[in-house]
Structure formats: structure tokens, C-alpha cells
Amino acid sequence: MNANVAILVSLAVSLLPSLAAQQPTWPLLIDSLPRLDTMRRVQLPSGRWLYRANLTLRFKESVSDSAKIGFFSRHGMTVVGVTRSGRFFVNIPDPGPTLDSLMGRLQGLRAEPEIRFVASLDFSPPEPVREPGPAAAPLVIDSLSRLLHEEN
């Protein structure tokens, strides 16, 4: 019996570092903006600019933190901030210099079963928030500071 207990204790101790590694350490955005990559942008036909290496997303409510960690790892994403309501701001590997490459990345992420919402971020000066277009149209968040204010 003692041998079994020793094996279980040894197994539990060996799992502790991996369990600790699964605890999220995402920066909580309360009174600050996330640090975004201002060097990599892409221009819309309207003249507005989008961050091409940053996105915002929200997971479905049933997705665990460990599944979120796995999702970010699988997609090469780095979390630069999360609001209290669960909206994530992430760095993504550069999809390329064209609008089509960014939109392709968004479409691919929208097809992921864990994702409830994903959108590009507007680099332009704040504008009034407009209603999103049809469901198939890519969403753009107009004002980062307004978005964070509404989230918190």
C-alpha cells in the first residue's frame, strides 16, 4: 500500500509544474490600453487603417482557460490584454501585407469551434461606433478606448 501511495505522490508532484503552467497570466485591462503592434498595418479602400497583427476575440462561454491557452498556442497568438468581461486582445503572426491576407486570417478564426467573435482593430483616430454590417462582413472595432470603456 505504501508503494502505491508513494507512486501517487510522485505522480502528483510531477504534475504540479504542468498544472501551474496552465494557469493564465493574461494582463487585465481595466484602466489601460493593450500594447498593439503599430508598425504592421493594412489600409482599407476607404482610407482607414487596420492593425494587421492584432485582433480582438471572445470565446464561447463553455471554453475553459486551458482550452484557451491551447488555442492561443496553436495559432501562435500572444495575449496582450483581456477585459473583465472576457474580450481578448492578441498579437498574431503577421498574415501578410494585404487586406485579403488579414481577412483570410479572420475568416479562418471565425470557423474555429471555440470562437464566438473575432474582429480586426481600427488604427484610425476614434470615430463614432457604427453598426456591424451583414454577418458575413468582417467586423471592425472603431475606437479601442471606447471599446474598453464599454467593456469595463
Give the SSE layout:
Layout: H1 2-21, E1 41-43, E2 49-59, H2 65-74, E3 78-82, E4 88-91, H3 99-110, E5 115-122, E6 140-141, H4 144-151
Parallel strand pairs: 5-6
Antiparallel strand pairs: 1-2, 2-4, 2-5, 3-4
Query: CATH first level: which class?
Result: Alpha Beta
Structural class assignment: alpha+beta
Judging from the principal axes of the Cα atoms, what is the shape? globular
- Rg: 19 Å
Q: State the helical fraction.
A: 25-40%
Instruction: Kindly report the oligomeric state of this protein.
Output: single chain
Domain count:
1
**What's the CATH H-level homologous superfamily?**
Peptidase S8 propeptide/proteinase inhibitor I9
Mean pLDDT: 80
Strands, total number: 6
Uncertain regions: pLDDT < 50 for 5+ in a row? none
Total number of helices:
4
CATH topology: Alpha-Beta Plaits
Q: How would you spell out the order of helices and strands?
A: HEEHEEHEEH
Please explain how this structure is put together.
With 152 residues, the protein is α+β, with helices and mostly antiparallel strands. It has one domain: Peptidase S8 propeptide/proteinase inhibitor I9 (Alpha-Beta Plaits, 2-Layer Sandwich), CATH 3.30.70.80. 33% of the residues lie in helices and 22% in strands. Strands 1, 2, 3, 4, 5 and 6 form a six-stranded mixed beta sheet that branches. A hairpin with a 5-residue loop joins β1 and β2. The chain is globular. The mean pLDDT is 80.
Please provide a brief summary of the model.
With 152 residues, this protein is an alpha+beta fold. Helices cover 33% and strands 22% of the residues. The model has no long low-confidence stretch (mean pLDDT 80).
